């Protein structure tokens, strides 16, 4: 008989099925609100974290990335890909998984799917940033790009910022129909639009979230009037942008981590010395966010590891006392830590021993 694993060998694992069950159990808008609060709390202690641009492996068709960070007590990383061509093949553009570990021992504490969780944390981060940067009276948002992220964005802005109307546009009308159908029971007033120009009419917040891995102009300078907040989340790797450069020149630009955003974000179009403000400084009161009614604020969001760390810590707490995880036998834990081979040998099948 093989020796049974000790308690130290087991690591909680949250599958896609578990994540869906957990979010339905809590309620998606509550999860988005909770995640926004968790992420904001970690932005308030931003200087404590290890920070590095994600480690990216680019190919002609996409990118695979590792996103690590630590607050000195807990370490976390996310594996994530971005392959725009996948949609045409019936596959997800983005897939991900993540891990938390104890810094003191190095032992993993949580393994989780992060395809759904990344969609949730991206939306929560967008809404959290808008809470600090958008006009306080904002009630209408344009959602340009109606793919896999769009519904999460709309619901997060409803839950966190009080948005009550979303105006949808995508170059693929089927994507807009899908998004409108999924939001039909959300309590939002959903307006389907035939162009980007139509979508941004009368809005206070513009979210752009398109997937093509190329320099693109989703918003031209003449489309953007004074006083709006732009939440640009589609540009997230070198050579991929959504906004005309002239919009950037008219905007107050806020970012997560400049060394990463200057490589991957909208500001890759600008000189490396162009001034930007780190969002954590606005949240902690060290820098000014929106200063007047005519200011254009731009959150040039590319996604940063600390946001994933926050999301994983939230999940680690949320699953306690629930059935929404499995215990995986992941860690070899021999009685004598110097006798790993002995543990292996004792697991030899009885027939082979005979």
From TrEMBL:
Top-level taxon: Bacteria
Molecular function GO terms recorded: lyase activity
EC number of the protein: 4.3.1.28
Keyword Lyase found: yes
Keyword annotations: Lyase
Pfam families: OCD_Mu_crystall
Listed name of the protein: L-lysine cyclodeaminase
């Amino acid at each position: 008989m093989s020796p049974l694993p000790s308690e130290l060998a087991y690591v909680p694992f949250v599958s896609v099925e578990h994540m869906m069950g957990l979010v339905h159990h809590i309620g998606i808008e509550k999860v988005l609100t909770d995640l926004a609060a968790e992420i904001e709390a970690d932005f308030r202690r931003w200087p404590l974290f290890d920070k590095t641009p994600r480690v990216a492996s680019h190919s002609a068709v996409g990118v695979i990335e590792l996103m690590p960070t630590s607050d000195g007590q807990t370490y976390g990383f996310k594996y994530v890909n971005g392959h725009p061509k996948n949609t045409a093949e019936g596959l997800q553009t983005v897939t991900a998984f993540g891990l938390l570990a104890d810094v003191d021992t190095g032992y993993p504490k949580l393994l989780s799917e992060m395809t759904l969780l990344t969609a949730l944390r991206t939306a929560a981060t967008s809404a959290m940033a808008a809470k600090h940067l958008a006009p306080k009276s904002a009630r209408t948002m344009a959602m340009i790009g109606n793919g896999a992220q769009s519904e999460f964005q709309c619901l997060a802005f409803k839950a966190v910022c009080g948005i009550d109307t979303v105006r949808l546009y995508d170059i693929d009308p089927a994507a807009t129909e899908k998004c409108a159908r999924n939001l039909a029971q959300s309590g939002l007033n959903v307006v389907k639009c035939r162009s980007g120009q139509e979508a941004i009419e009368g809005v206070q917040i513009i979210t752009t979230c398109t997937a093509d891995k190329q320099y693109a102009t989703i918003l031209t300078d003449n489309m953007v009037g004074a006083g709006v907040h732009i939440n640009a989340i589609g540009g997230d790797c070198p050579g991929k942008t959504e906004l005309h450069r002239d919009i950037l020149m008219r905007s107050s630009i806020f970012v997560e981590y400049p060394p990463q955003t200057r490589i991957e974000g909208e500001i890759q179009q600008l000189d490396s010395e162009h001034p930007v403000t780190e969002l954590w400084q606005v949240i902690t009161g060290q820098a000014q966010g929106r200063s007047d009614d005519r200011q254009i604020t731009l959150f040039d969001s590319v996604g940063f590891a600390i946001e994933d760390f926050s999301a994983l810590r939230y999940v680690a707490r949320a699953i306690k006392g629930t059935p929404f995880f499995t215990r995986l036998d992941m860690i070899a834990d021999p009685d004598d830590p110097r006798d790993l081979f002995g543990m292996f040998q004792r697991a030899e099948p009885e027939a082979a021993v005979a």
